[in-house]
Design goal:
Two copies of one chain form a homodimer.
Chain A: H1 2-15, H2 37-44, H3 48-55, H4 63-75, H5 82-89, E1 94-99, H6 105-119, E2 124-129, H7 134-146, E3 151-154, H8 167-171, E4 176-179, E5 189-193, H9 195-208, E6 214-218, H10 224-239, E7 249-251, H11 256-268, E8 275-278, H12 281-293, E9 303-305, E10 322-324, H13 327-343, E11 353-356, E12 359-361
The structure holds a DNA duplex.
DNA sequence: TTGAAAGCGGTACCAA
DNA sequence: TTGGTACCGCTTTCAA
């Protein structure tokens, strides 16, 4: 394998000293500093206004001069100054995004969706993280306003139970869109997935697999997605003639440790359970660890299903069933909504609410029927 | 559990119709549009220049007027227009960051480090993702230049083997800093961890645990971090009197599937192996899956260690040893370097290279000594 | 179809 | 210490 030796050698050689690859680096004479539309105007022999029109394909310009301007611009490597343009027509062509944390596949995928949609329309995106901290979220709104963004897209932090900081955004007439973690306490357009239906399907799937004592892991009910998931879970139980028992609903921070504790709690209780539907993937992994530590067999004895389709749900043993939230699609729809708002009615009378469908992903952690068809340790065989 | 019923009820009530919480939403009369320093000047009875000085705590201003201006500004809820300021003094107070993908704990933590350091200094951050796509990286540089950022911080994409797109950044005199995935082919300041030493330690740890036939998973050698990790691995072997065998170095995309394939490859070969040091956590998870599928016992038969301390390395069974790269610290140092550059010499003669130490995290996947002290199935007992 | 000129909201120089 | 003013680069009316 010569290649390896080659690279190893290269390295040693390089360590001896630094190459000056670009001669112009230390070159004292500078290039022409800044190129503006006036330079182009000079070049072509017209005025700056004409150049501006040519560059922004304004209707009132002759094809001939337009062509000349465009060519000259390319020739002298002109780059428009968006800041100047922004100052002039009061549009920064910047979109601010606030997510609890970008360090989640779900959120980063949404951001990707927004980004691609926006970039295609010559808008840039500014990402901020609230870290689920209310104070930070308030500050961030302020920072984005400071940066004069043209619109703000927010997924609310877990601890955000007051919404006064969005008033100034609304008041300034800056388009505001909520996605995923939203609230109904504010009259704001939003893009969400059908959490209710997804939770219903997930619970139903567990029931199909013969589980009957299904616990639910959730977080604060002030956050709508958790309320919706609880409602879906509850309805699925009721529709299958299973008693909804509030004792089976365990609230936590929905992190790894929260999941562990919640599982611990269930194990310690006397009422028994044979499945968990968690509103978070992190919590279900915590539960998985705790259950395995206690020699509980998954999915034979307890079925598990999470929420969000985080990449690691594929890595666990067994692989975890979960709900895919079509993050990219949420992002695209959120961005699309923003563009609808700036092009049409910025604050439509009945608020717009886009509800997307989620996808149930069935993996091993909730599948006991295929291989153990006869195992009927549940009390209510179908 | 009344609380649940409470929330469930609330929901149903709310579904009936939308509340108009903020009366002013549909209020036809608008608030005062934009508040500028001229408004303050008018209010206080001075000129705009004086207001500007007061706001930017310029030395040449009397405490009395300064106080009046500040109070007036607060009273009429003035917000400075950064765009106008940016246009005037040619500084956007924006920093551009390019990472391959933000959807990695490592990168998002770095970004967090940069963000906090920069925000504390009144700079904002613009995050872009290259998705390891060379073309996208080039475009993104252009987009950031377009946005007139004051500096750019980059972690190179996996497929970036040409660096011409950074020339224009350097040429424009915009501070450029590379972090983590860097190159020496460009004379640019950089912040990296000591990959060589970290790899050395990791390999050494495996040897300490009695493993002797240690394979290495790597990616393209053009990326310096992989070269360094390979070098550390190699040196650790040599220093322990173990033959370095290029056959044991397996190259892949370092994703989950790459790891699976590489493990498959090792299993298919005749030369045997009893440990893997992977330069990526994703690849080592892939290997773990493949090995488990083949009933290989971890860590008894094969020891594993990854790189990056991704959160999921804690979730696997067994938990994976890995290398923590102190991402936040990388971020802070990268930002600090930027501020050194804008305050002092933007392109110091000998390039600055900050090298941070990494942390070996030992978990179950590489620990067989504690419990199986007597198991000496290796040929070279220490 | 093109040009002239007035700003967008701050900043910074020069003069007072 | 303050005021007057030109200007950053681009957009956009109004006139020609």
């Amino acid at each position: 394998m010569h290649l390896l030796d080659y690279f190893l050698n290269i390295h040693f050689k390089r360590s001896q000293g630094c190459f000056a690859i670009f001669g112009f680096l230390d070159c004292p004479m500078k290039k022409k500093e800044k190129i503006t539309i006036h330079d182009i105007a000079m070049e072509v022999g017209v005025t700056a206004s004409t150049v501006s029109r040519a560059l922004n394909n304004h209707p009132r310009i002759s094809p001939a001069t337009k062509k000349m301007v465009l060519e000259a611009a390319k020739a002298i490597n002109y780059k428009p100054n968006r800041i100047a343009a922004a100052l002039r027509h009061g549009k920064s062509k910047l979109i601010g995004i606030i997510v609890p944390t970008i360090n989640r596949n779900f959120f980063s995928s949404i951001v990707r969706g927004i980004e691609e949609y926006a970039n295609a329309r010559d808008y840039k995106v500014m990402i901020s993280q609230s870290y689920d901290d209310y104070k930070k979220e308030v500050e961030t709104i302020d920072a984005l306003l400071d940066a004069r963004v043209d619109g703000i897209m927010v997924s609310l932090g877990k601890n955000t139970h007051s919404f006064a900081h969005f008033e100034s955004v609304i008041q300034k007439g800056i388009p505001l869109v909520f996605f995923d973690r939203t609230t109904d306490e504010l009259d704001v357009n939003q893009v969400i997935i059908d959490d209710y239906s997804a939770a219903y399907q997930a619970t139903n799937h567990l029931i199909d697999q013969g589980y009957r004592h299904i616990a639910h892991f959730t977080s604060h009910m002030k956050i709508k997605i958790y309320l919706e998931r609880l409602r879906g879970y509850r309805q699925a139980l009721l529709d299958n003639g299973i008693h909804f028992d509030a004792k089976m609903v365990v609230e936590s921070n929905m992190q790894l440790d929260g999941g562990r504790n919640s599982a611990r709690f269930l194990l310690d209780q006397s009422f028994g359970f044979d499945a968990i539907f968690s509103a978070s993937d992190y919590a279900i992994v915590g539960a998985l660890q705790e259950l395995k530590k206690n020699k509980v067999k998954i999915p034979q004895e307890v079925g598990l299903i999470g929420f969000s389709n985080e990449p690691f749900t594929e890595f666990t043993e067994p692989a975890l069933s979960t709900v895919d939230q079509k993050a990219i699609s949420i992002g695209e729809n959120t961005a699309a909504l923003f563009f609808e708002m700036i092009n049409g009615d910025p604050r439509p009378k009945p608020r717009i609410k886009k509800v997307l469908d989620a996808n149930l992903i069935i993996r091993t952690s909730s599948s006991r029927i295929p291989n153990i068809q006869l195992n009927t340790n549940s009390t209510n065989p179908e």
